[in-house]
Fold this sequence. Notes:
Layout: E1 8-9, E2 23-24, H1 32-45, H2 49-52, H3 61-81, E3 95-96, E4 102-103, H4 119-135, H5 152-180, H6 184-200, H7 213-221
Antiparallel strand pairs: 1-2, 3-4
Helix pairs in contact: 1-3, 3-5, 3-6, 4-5, 5-6
GO molecular function: kinase activity
Protein name: MOB1A kinase
Binding site for Zn(2+): 87, 92, 169, 174
Amino acid sequence: VKGLTRNVFSLVSGSRSSKTFKPKKNIPEGSHQYELLKHAEATLGSGNLRQAVMLPEGEDLNEWIAVNTVDFFNQINMLYGTITEFCTEASCPVMSAGPRYEYHWADGTNIKKPIKCSAPKYIDYLMTWVQDQLDDETLFPSKIGVPFPKNFMSVAKTILKRLFRVYAHIYHQHFDSVMRLQEEAHLNTSFKHFIFFVQEFNLIDRRELAPLQELIEKLGSKDR
């Protein structure tokens, strides 16, 4: 199975900057992963998102999911980076997606018991955790010929489930800021691509998608 070199964002003094996130694409030109990414971008350009998320003929499912997971991580990183000044300890003392949904952080290793924390702190934990998974050669192998581990799909599902929560927080708590910045078309397209992808491969449980269910139905109704 072919490997994957991931995108990574800039590190500031060994940790992510609290204000801006700067993802850096690092999939090498000429590699198979780069060709897959280019294929994804080309099919996205066609405007048919349902078709764009389908596994290309003859490709490995794990690698397709890996390449797209990296891409979604970068997209969400950039989208959240545009509104970090509005997402503060004061404005968002809890990580929520509307009044009915609140998230507590645990990663199973460093923080085993879920803790209540502010949205910026939660998202910092979340994005740092995702980056750690993407940087783990045993989970996301970068060398050609190194197989994906047996638990890869489980890890990918957890990553995508958690990335969804950042979209949910942005939509519920910061959409007015997104509109003021005229970023709503970018956010909607990114989220629609994300949702069609996770639906195509059944990667996120429907219950986890509940905070944005109405939006998901609205986005999907135009493509049926």
